[in-house]
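Minimal example, chain plus alpha-D-galactopyranose.
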Amino acid sequence: MCRVVCLLAFVSVLGLAAEALDNGLALKPTMGWLHWERFMCNTDCEGDPDNCISERLYMQMADMMVKEGWKEAGYEYVCIDDCWPSRQRDAQGRLQADPKRFPRGIKKLADYVHSKGLKLGIYADVGKNTCAGYPGSLGYYETDAQTFADWGVDLLKFDGCYMDWTLLGEGYINMSKALNKTGRSILYSCEWPLYEWPFRKPNYTAIRETCNHWRNFNDVYDSWSSVKSILEWTASHQDIIVPSAGPGGWNDPDMLVIGNFGLSHDQQESQMALWAIMAAPLLMSNDLRNICPRSKELLQNRHIIDISQDPVGKQGYRSAKVDSFEVWERPLSKNRLAIAVLNNQEIGGPRGFVIRAAPGWKICDPKCNVTQILPQYKEMGVQTQQSKMVISVNPSGTALLTVTPFSSDFTGLHKLHWENTSIRHKHGTIL
Ligand code: GLA
């Protein structure tokens, strides 16, 4: 553990190890909606017109985003995933949208989304084909980048199927250059490390210089086991991936599946809390036309979104595993700290978790203010180093707290704070 703590202290002193892709985008984790997990490759617009991949789907989502408070909450990008194009490029070698499902074309769709004050994302692939078998961009990077720019696209998700892995880096870098050359600001979402991990440890310095966010691990499914596997992968690779995140470039643990079928409400709270702790892009994949009010309230919870969008942009990490609880922490601006406590015991009822400020835990010396955000908002008031707080956490649920130092003397002491955090865990004073 000390390895990560020390690394973070190092990073906070020297600044980020690598420069981010310098396109001025994704200074905070991207927020929006992406079709894949919920709508997949449904192209059957005759049999299933409401759920097929068509211009109608994105127009309706854009409408909902404005009407139902999503835009106001910060969700901005409406993103197309795989299965949008024709099987053939046009006579000039350009990608074209499937004419039956997108009769007005992508440019008109972008105009519509922009007219709502939102942004449009599209999907392509660094290799010969997309994962679902549609035309890939290999050999067409400049053409495709220019086509997307001409259409007014604002984000490109660039997948990594059907590509020789030794050429992945070159391909992702060349597309980054091609996007840059268009002169349009296009947020660049990559899957480079996901496809490289099976062969070698990816070069996160190069990835951060190339992409605004990058997928590291498997696709999310609508299940708690899938969300758990993503959290476990992230925690077990945190010493490698956490330092690479910061304004302009983020680790992407994949979509939020909140509001669908597979997660209990407690599990939905866990996904939301931990995606905020991980400084992850918040790209929902759900049906905004039909979402239960509790899921909607959770996804629009401004306290959690504030943690996600914290301007310092440091990714949090797992700091302890104790008695089937996991503790995750994220350093926030103004020397605040977010703490998530996940109850991994999937049997029985709520269990109490004791938080005790250890002597030397500077954030509460002499006093701190603690606010509980999940499972319900509660001001826990002023705490001192002697305080003992017991929080109740449901099975597979998460309690989310913020800790704010009280003393105006407590400024710029991140380094001290982290050093003390490691001492705190070594002595096991967080129980
Ligand atoms: C890959 C990606 C997914 C999705 C599908 C589409 O599996 O990781 O996020 O884009 O391809 O085919």
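The chain is about 30% helix and 20% strand. Residues 1-15, 410-431 have pLDDT under 50 and may be disordered.
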